[in-house]
Design brief:
Blueprint (H helix, E strand, L loop, with lengths): L1 E8 L12 E5 L3 E6 L6 H8 L5 E7 L2 E2 L10 E4 L11 H12 L4 H9 L15 H12 L6 E5 L7 H16 L3 E6 L2 H6 L6 E7 L2 E7 H7 L1 E8 L3 H14 L4 E5 L5 E5 L3 H10 L6 E8 L26 E5 L55 E2 L10 H10 L2 H24 L4 H6 L9 H19 L4 H4 L6 H34 L10 H26 L2 H20 L13 H8 L8 H13 L1 H23 L5
Helix pairs in contact: 2-3, 2-10, 10-15, 11-13, 11-15, 13-15, 13-16, 13-17, 15-16, 16-17, 16-19, 16-20, 17-20
């Protein structure tokens, strides 16, 4: 059961809200279509329901607001726009990564690939999928958590008839199992046929306001009417002749002049009658076909007699006029705009008239209108809330990192560049051995290993904002503590792996080129190892945090390069005291203050860490990380992120 009550989007610069006091309901076992012309507020209504945009109102999913649902992916499946994800990621890899976000086994990805007909295309890149396959992957992403409610924005847009029929079949199957389906469309005929034999409703909106709330049968009877499409260079004369003959024969015929002066839509007649009339009066006809026309959500007063113009047609004909020849008492309502308590056509719907339990949503009549829980007061505010983090953040981050070839490529570049630079540095014999093994010449601000570690850290958040994988659930990348810690841990692990592989590759290259006499273990190997590890991990974290603050990969890379280029000279120019005091004995004093007494071997590690921080590069990196952490926390708190 989905209940949307009083949805009203925020006003911007005095403009009318895109959604204005919209109240409707979509029940279980029911396929509900949210129908409206482009720009009528359909997508804005969905974003308000999913708490992606600020405004007023409330939406209940089986009696609970979305921000109170512990696992939203298992309650609501969402398709908004295109399938998010890196274009070189495979369809199976994308789904497995989202499985970690939804907290379901990775085997669920293969099951859904088979369900949506992509079993043989699991290894295809997302960029190579056709629009139809892309929609199938989007639907599979929405179904990962086996949700009760499906919310889809224009799911059949750009699909051919066969793919659209398949999509409608999946939606009907989900509803037949007791699920709730809500999707938007601008095609009235698609809204009528999507439900099929399953109970369905059509909620029509215009200008962000409710126009009609009908079951599919009533909608098709009142909104979709058979017509004869006529195209003639003398359309005005033909319309007048058809109307005059209909009045003379006392037949109920409606002639609509479309926006194009050469096109007519005639209701209540047939192709043979229109063709005979045109032939008798010598009027040429370029097109004559039977169609099913959409009468549109808003219609002006019908004036008996000749052709009149209809306004706001939903069939894409633009402003037009409608006229009825004859006044048959049994003729259908031209727009079907009367719903329970809805008031006049195009007027603001009376929410008080929507009170009442209504019929059982699972029956053929479809969903009943939603009860008015807000009363005469303003509905509660809707705060923009980002999506929750993945339920298994470490697994999600590992699949995100190694699901594309970029990670392996960057690591390979770091190894090859470091090995080559080490061989060149060892040639003159004047560069210290630690710098040779780290491949860090004085000309470079940072060694290749640190730069590549920072780039991978920047991509950790940069790719999330560029290809928001979690938007398949709801909205942009969340900033939750679990996801942040997972990214920090994984990026640190990758940075340490790069640091180790670079040293091994450099040593192997030196042994191969110059022999084994050059390589010897220095006495301060522990301090050097801590410094080397701290440099690579610090660069990875600097890139990660900067990309998370500024939401772009380039900002993360710039933050990494700013450490040696800007921060180190700044630290070196800081005024120094004339007499420096020694911190000798600090580990022992810390041991006295600490409740658990650590072993004496720990003192060596503490001193090594202090020496790393005291180095200009270590001090600059520590200051940069401190500033980035504060900026990250500030932007998260300012954005009202729920940790």
């Amino acid at each position: 059961m989905l209940q949307a009550i009083g949805l009203t989007s925020a006003r911007h610069r005095g403009l009318q809200p895109a959604v204005d006091d919209l109240t409707f309901e979509a029940g279980p076992g029911c396929v509900t279509a949210l129908l409206g012309a482009p720009g009528s507020g359909k997508t804005a209504a969905l974003r308000l329901m999913l708490e992606l945009d600020p405004g007023r109102g409330i939406t209940y999913f089986r009696g609970r607001a979305l921000h109170r649902v512990a696992q939203p992916a298992r309650e609501v499946g969402v398709v908004l726009g295109d399938v998010p994800g890196h274009p070189v990621r495979t369809a199976r890899g994308q789904l497995r990564m989202l499985c970690a976000a939804a907290g379901v086994p990775a085997s669920r990805a293969d099951e859904l690939l088979d369900t949506v007909g992509l079993a043989g295309l699991g290894d295809q890149r997302i960029a190579s999928l056709s629009p139809g396959m892309d929609r199938r992957l989007a639907l599979a992403s929405a179904l990962l958590g086996d949700p009760h409610t499906l919310i889809l924005d224009e799911p059949a847009e750009g699909l051919d008839a066969r793919e659209a029929d398949w999509l409608h079949g999946v939606l009907r199957f989900h509803a037949a199992r007791g699920g709730t389906v809500l999707y938007t469309t601008s095609d009235a005929k698609e809204a009528a046929r999507a439900a099929g034999r399953v109970a369905g409703r059509v909620v029509s909106i215009d200008g962000g306001r409710l126009v009609a709330d009908q079951d599919v049968v009533e909608f098709a009877r009142t909104r979709l009417r058979p017509r004869v499409a006529v195209r003639s260079p003398h359309a005005a004369r033909l319309a007048a002749v058809v109307s005059r003959e209909a009045r003379a024969a006392r037949r109920s015929v409606e002639v609509v002049t479309e926006a194009s002066s050469s096109r007519l839509s005639v209701y209540g007649s047939s192709c043979a009658e229109i063709g005979d009339t045109a032939f008798r009066h010598g009027l040429p006809v370029h097109q004559l076909a039977d169609e099913v026309g959409d009468t549109g959500p808003v219609v002006s007063h019908v004036v008996p007699g000749g052709p009149a113009r209809r306004e706001n047609g939903a069939d894409g004909t633009g402003p037009s006029e409608a006229a009825a020849a004859g006044t048959g008492s049994d003729g259908p309502d031209p727009v079907g705009s009367r719903s329970a308590g809805s008031g006049p056509v195009g007027s603001r719907p009376d929410r008080a008239g929507l009170v009442g339990p209504g019929p059982d949503p699972g029956r053929a009549e479809g969903c009943s209108p939603a009860p008015d829980a807000a009363g005469p007061d303003l509905p509660p505010p809707i705060r923009r809330r980002p999506a929750r983090g993945p339920l298994r953040p470490v697994r999600y981050e590992l699949r995100r990192l190694f699901g594309v070839r970029t990670t392996a490529l960057i690591m390979a570049v770091a190894l090859v560049a470091s090995a080559g630079i080490s061989v060149l540095l060892a040639r003159d014999g004047r560069t210290p051995l630690p710098n040779v093994l780290a491949a860090w010449p004085s000309l470079l601000p940072l060694p290749p290993a640190a730069i590549c570690a920072g780039l991978l850290g920047a991509l950790s958040f940069g790719d999330e904002f560029r290809y928001p994988a979690l938007a398949a659930g709801r909205g942009t990348v969340p900033r939750r503590l679990g996801l942040l810690l997972a990214k920090l841990a994984v990026s640190a692990g990758v940075a340490l792996l790069i640091a180790l592989l670079v040293v091994v590759a450099s040593a192997a290259s030196l042994r191969l080129v110059y022999g084994g006499d050059l390589i010897r273990i220095p006495p301060n190997v522990m301090s050097l190892g801590v410094s080397w590890s701290g440099l690579t991990v610090g660069c990875a974290w600097a890139g990660l945090l900067a990309a998370g603050v500024f939401r772009v990969t380039a900002a993360g890379v710039a933050a990494v390069l700013a450490v040696p280029v800007l921060m180190v000279p700044l630290v070196q120019r800081m005024p120094k005291a004339p007499t420096a005091r020694s911190m000798t004995g600090l580990p022992g004093r810390l041991r006295e203050l600490a409740w658990p007494h650590w072993p004496h071997e720990t003192d060596r590690w503490v001193l090594a860490a202090m020496r790393v921080v005291a180095h200009p590069v270590g001090t600059a990196l520590t200051l940069s990380l401190s500033v980035l952490i504060c900026a990250y926390l500030f932007t998260s708190v300012r954005g009202r992120v729920r940790w």
